[in-house]
Write a structure and sequence with these properties.
This protein is an alpha+beta fold. The protein has five helices and four strands; from the N terminus they run E-H-E-H-E-E-H-H-H.
């Protein structure tokens, strides 16, 4: 891939010349291969540049000014976007190139990757911790349920014991009632015997009087 820098060698604007020199000098400092394409002396270069600069990147006049930067057919940007990338140490990303090992941009990319992986690890640990907490909660819930079940059994046993105790007095009451009925029956028979005895005595007295 070749970086193409469209510039005007015979531009009368000092600002444009300065911007062009800034771009070319920075690419040479980074030892990035590039090609200078002059739009002042080559009409084809000027037309190609104007046609391939995106519409939203063109100025209000409709004519993009140099320098304009491309990676083969891919538009990278103008001087302003190049300057921003230089300030952010993201020139290789701006140009669509892989930063060489040891460069500031490569170190930044590596650091960002580590942060991303670290976040993923933290999320993974967070998921494991959450699963562990849920498992412990379920175990505690089972233990709590077992504790609730045991008192229920005790309550049922106590209720059975109370029922048995209630049945025993009921049996005692039944026996007492039978005994009382027997006593009443015996007393009734004794009263009947006494009544018969009195009647016999009265009959004897009456017979004696008649005699």
């Amino acid at each position: 891939m070749v970086i193409k820098v469209f510039l005007a060698s015979s531009s009368g604007s000092t600002a444009i010349k300065k911007k062009q020199q800034d771009v070319v000098g920075f690419l040479e400092a980074l030892k990035i291969d590039y090609a200078q394409l002059d739009i002042a002396s080559n009409e084809d270069n000027r037309l190609w540049m104007r046609e391939n600069v995106p519409g939203e990147k063109k100025p209000t006049t409709g004519i993009p000014l140099p320098p304009q930067i491309f990676n083969e057919e891919m538009y990278c940007g103008d001087y302003d976007t190049f300057f921003d990338a230089k300030e952010d140490n993201t020139v290789y990303e701006f140009l669509g190139l892989t930063p060489p090992p040891g460069s500031k941009e490569a170190q930044q990319a590596e650091h960002s990757q580590k942060l991303h992986n670290g976040s993923g690890t933290e999320e993974h640990l967070g998921d494991d911790t959450t699963k562990k907490e849920i498992k412990e909660a379920e175990q505690n819930g089972d233990a709590h349920t077992a504790e609730l079940e045991d008192p229920g059994e005790n309550v049922e046993t106590d209720a059975q014991q109370e029922d048995e105790e209630e049945e025993e007095p009921a049996e005692e009451d039944e026996e007492s009632r039978k005994a009382a009925e027997e006593e009443e029956q015996e007393e009734g028979e004794e009263d009947k015997v006494e009544d018969n005895h009195l009647v016999s005595e009265e009959e004897e007295e009456h017979a004696s009087e008649e005699d």
